């Protein structure tokens, strides 16, 4: 019998190597991210890569339906709104953006049916680029999936949205960044996923030699790059698995328990009320009632706004000329 003894590297060596890899990879990602962000900037010719479909935003919030062809996006629009969008068993039935309105708790939520996208959409395959550009304008994204198909579809869609700078179910990293004549890096927490050297080098590669950076959470290198690029969209997302009429109960049970997930059957009209309830929760709308002095407000007619809205937003919700002549508001 022979015994092979493997020579193990001392642990500090591996740690050093990982650190060096992190550093070089961080710098490389920073350069690529800037290059891609420039590609996505709207140009004057050919409408630009960053232009979505020409559909007016209306109502209190916009919800976009993103998914592969034939997962049931149009069927959902037709079931949840008064708008009919053609659905059929062949792929790419829908070729443009079709808006409908969900009325719920006094709010009017615009639901946008969109063409199906395929892998490579963000690079311009099919109408993909227009679809993902439209997704960027949404207050909530519904990633619609066919429950009978493989789990891979979800990851592929996430990659396409990520490539155009959409960050799903994430909040903006708590980093404050200011250009200045002098400055430095300040942090209120220890950094365990990246380090100051990497951050300094990335700043230098962006020619940002003088700036003030205040880091208030344990960010990754990627998150730091997102802050620098500055145009990332942080959008909440629900994963909607359709066609649960065609899968086993066990599988449905498993899917339904995942985070940010709702299971439905458009065909059988199953769980659609619950989906609308979840959309409402995710949008986190606040209702504002206006009233005359000494009178009670009309509780049937609220103005719905995203959380964090200002009095000016309320004015704009009533009439676009109101804010200019507005003097004061009493707010309860
Ligand atoms: N079994 C089953 N089939 C469904 C369900 N919902 C939709 N379908 C079928 O799926 C097919 C595609 O539906 P569409 O609504 O056209 O899908 P889409 O996502 O809008 O497709 P594109 O516009 O081509 O991207 C149609 O044949 C529908 O009848 C469902 O809940 N269960
Ligand atoms: K279809
Ligand atoms: Mg469709």
UniProtKB/TrEMBL annotation:
Keyword Nucleotide-binding: yes
Boundaries of every OBG-type G domain copy: 61-284
Entries under NCBIfam families matching the protein: small_GTP
UniProtKB keywords: GTP-binding, Nucleotide-binding
Organism: Trametes coccinea (strain BRFM310) (Pycnoporus coccineus)
Keyword Transmembrane belongs to the record: no
Gene3D superfamilies the record matches: 3.10.20.30, 6.10.140.1070
UniProt GO molecular function: GTP binding; GTPase activity
Pfam families (alphabetical): MMR_HSR1, MMR_HSR1_Xtn, TGS
Organism domain of life: Eukaryota
Domain TGS, chain residue ranges per copy: 284-332
Protein name: Developmentally regulated GTP-binding protein
């Amino acid at each position: 019998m022979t015994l092979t003894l493997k020579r193990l590297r001392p642990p500090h060596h591996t740690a050093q190597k990982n650190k060096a890899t992190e550093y070089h990879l961080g710098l490389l990602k920073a350069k690529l991210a800037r290059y891609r962000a420039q590609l996505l900037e709207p140009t004057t010719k050919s409408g630009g890569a960053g232009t979505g479909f020409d559909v007016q935003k209306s109502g209190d919030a916009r919800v976009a339906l993103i998914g592969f062809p034939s997962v049931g996006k149009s069927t959902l629009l037709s079931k949840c709104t008064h708008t009919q969008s053609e659905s059929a068993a062949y792929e790419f039935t829908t070729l443009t953006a079709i808006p409908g309105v969900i009325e719920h708790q006094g709010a009017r939520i615009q639901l946008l049916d969109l063409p199906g996208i395929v892998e490579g959409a963000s690079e311009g395959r099919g109408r993909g680029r227009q679809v993902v550009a439209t997704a960027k304008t949404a207050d909530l994204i519904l990633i619609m999936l066919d429950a009978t198909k493989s789990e891979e579809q979800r990851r592929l869609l996430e990659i396409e949205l990520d490539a155009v700078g959409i960050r799903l179910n994430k909040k903006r990293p708590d980093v404050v960044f200011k250009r200045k004549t002098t400055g430095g890096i300040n942090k209120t927490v220890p950094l365990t996923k990246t380090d100051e050297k990497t951050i300094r080098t990335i700043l230098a590669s962006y020619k940002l030699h003088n700036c003030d950076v205040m880091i208030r959470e344990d960010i990754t290198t990627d998150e730091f790059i997102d802050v620098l690029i500055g145009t990332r969209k942080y959008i909440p997302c629900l994963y909607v698995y359709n066609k649960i009429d065609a899968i086993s109960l066990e599988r449905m049970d498993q899917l339904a328990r995942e985070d940010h997930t709702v299971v439905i059957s458009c065909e059988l009209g199953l769980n659609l009320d619950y989906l609308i309830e979840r959309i409402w929760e995710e949008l986190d709308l606040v209702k504002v009632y206006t009233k005359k002095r000494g009178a009670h407000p009309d509780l049937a007619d609220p103005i719905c706004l995203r959380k964090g809205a200002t009095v000016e937003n309320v004015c704009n919700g009533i009439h676009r000329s109101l804010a200019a002549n507005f003097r004061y508001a009493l707010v309860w």
